[in-house]
């Protein structure tokens, strides 16, 4: 996953953010954070945003916004002789001139603001997407790179697509912008035909989206070079997070002439890039000779019939899971 690096991060003073424990919001505060933007402040309770009408945390949060690039500032935070602050990224760019007053910048660190930041607790930036958690200022950023409510990247392979969004948005995007085939149901029967099976270099690939159990799944089929050998691969990705993906299993079958290959697995989350799943070989892999054998005929054309099924597993959230590539 590529995180969008919009914050000026510089932990150069040895601050150990691991030592700061994050914690979830107290239940009675949930609705306040899910319905209020933090900048509006929490005016009616003793929550972390402060009990006064103008929340102190909110105004301090604004102070922690770099006036030059508007990103959140992290240590070392700098200031000029007149007290104008700016982030360490901007400091390297302004040629020793304060962008606010044009005076010489010098090398003054704003320790007071850094200390104040340390005392802050703020909601995750994806609170409007449903994340109920709040974090100490310096560990918020770390959480946001792994937050379950962060938007997903477009799962389409074969082109660089920078579209991000939630699942309903991405389903519509795949259908409308990438013209991906959409199917309803938990079984499938697909024929992949390729007129020149020798051309694997250009990585032929196909994507089909399945809708079942109220969820969406991406079935990928593609040809690529594995070492010296051209292979075909089919695998399923779940449009959602990994912990939910574990609730499902799928099987794929390909064969002809009395032989068949069967793959059974757990769909991978689209949080894992298409390439990562492919490179971990977490799917049905068909050697080209076998693929041509299954194709029958004169072996000039690839004709593979892949059948498959998706099913829901008994829920067992404590079950250990071993994802290839992560466990060895
Ligand atoms: Zn800045
Ligand atoms: Zn200044
Ligand atoms: Zn979050
Ligand atoms: Zn896309």
Overview of the molecule:
Residues 26-48 are annotated as: Disordered. Belongs to the SINA (Seven in absentia) family. Residues 32-48 have a biased composition (Polar residues). The chain has 328 residues and is α+β, with helices and mostly antiparallel strands. It folds into 2 domains: 17-146, Zinc/RING finger domain, C3HC4 (zinc finger) (Herpes Virus-1), CATH 3.30.40; 152-312, Apoptosis, Tumor Necrosis Factor Receptor Associated Protein 2, Chain A (Sandwich). Helix content is 20%, strand content 29%. It has helices at 30-35, 56-63, 88-91, 111-118, 137-146, 167-176, 242-245, 274-279, 288-295; strands at residues 23-24, 78-79, 85-86, 108-109, 121-123, 133-136, 152-153, 164-165, 181-184, 187-194, 205-212, 215-226, 229-238, 248-256, 259-265, 268-269, 284-287, 302-312. The strands form 5 sheets. Strands 9, 11, 12, 13, 16 and 17 form a 6-stranded mixed sheet that branches. The longest helix is centred in the middle third of the chain and has 10 residues, at 137-146. The model is unreliable at 1-54 (pLDDT under 50). Bound molecules: zinc ion (ZN) (4 copies). One zinc ion binds at residues 8, 66, 68-69, 71, 86-87, 89-90. One zinc ion (ZN) binds at residues 8, 66, 68-69, 71, 86-87, 89-90.
């Amino acid at each position: 996953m590529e995180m969008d690096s919009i914050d000026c991060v510089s932990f150069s003073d040895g601050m150990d953010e691991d030592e700061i424990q994050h914690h979830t919001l107290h239940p009675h505060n949930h609705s306040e954070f899910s319905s209020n933007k933090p900048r509006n402040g929490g005016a009616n309770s003793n929550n972390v945003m402060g009990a006064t009408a103008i929340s102190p945390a909110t105004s301090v949060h604004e102070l922690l916004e770099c006036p030059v690039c508007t990103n959140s500032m992290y240590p070392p935070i700098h200031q000029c002789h007149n007290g104008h602050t700016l982030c360490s990224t901007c400091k390297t760019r302004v040629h020793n001139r304060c962008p606010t007053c044009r005076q010489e910048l010098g090398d003054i660190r704003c320790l007071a603001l850094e200390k104040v930041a340390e005392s802050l607790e703020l909601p995750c930036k994806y609170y409007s997407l449903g994340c109920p958690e709040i974090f100490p200022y310096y560990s918020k950023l770390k959480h946001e790179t792994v937050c379950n409510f962060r938007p997903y990247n477009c799962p389409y392979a074969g082109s660089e697509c920078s579209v991000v969004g939630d699942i309903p948005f991405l389903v519509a995007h795949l259908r409308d912008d990438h013209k991906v085939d959409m199917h309803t149901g938990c079984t499938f029967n697909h024929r992949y035909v390729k007129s020149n099976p020798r051309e694997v270099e250009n990585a032929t690939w196909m994507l089909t989206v399945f809708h079942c159990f109220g969820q969406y799944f991406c079935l990928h089929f593609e040809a690529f070079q594995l070492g010296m050998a051209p292979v075909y691969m089919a695998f399923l990705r779940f449009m959602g997070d990994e912990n939910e993906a574990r609730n499902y299993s799928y099987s794929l079958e390909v064969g002809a002439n009395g032989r068949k290959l069967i793959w059974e697995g757990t769909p991978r989350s689209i949080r894992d890039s298409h390439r990562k799943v492919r490179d971990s070989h977490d799917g049905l892999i068909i050697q080209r000779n076998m693929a041509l054998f299954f194709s029958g005929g004169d072996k000039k054309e690839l004709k593979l019939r892949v059948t498959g099924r998706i099913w829901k597993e008994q829920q067992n959230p404590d079950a250990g899971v071993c994802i290839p590539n992560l466990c060895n």
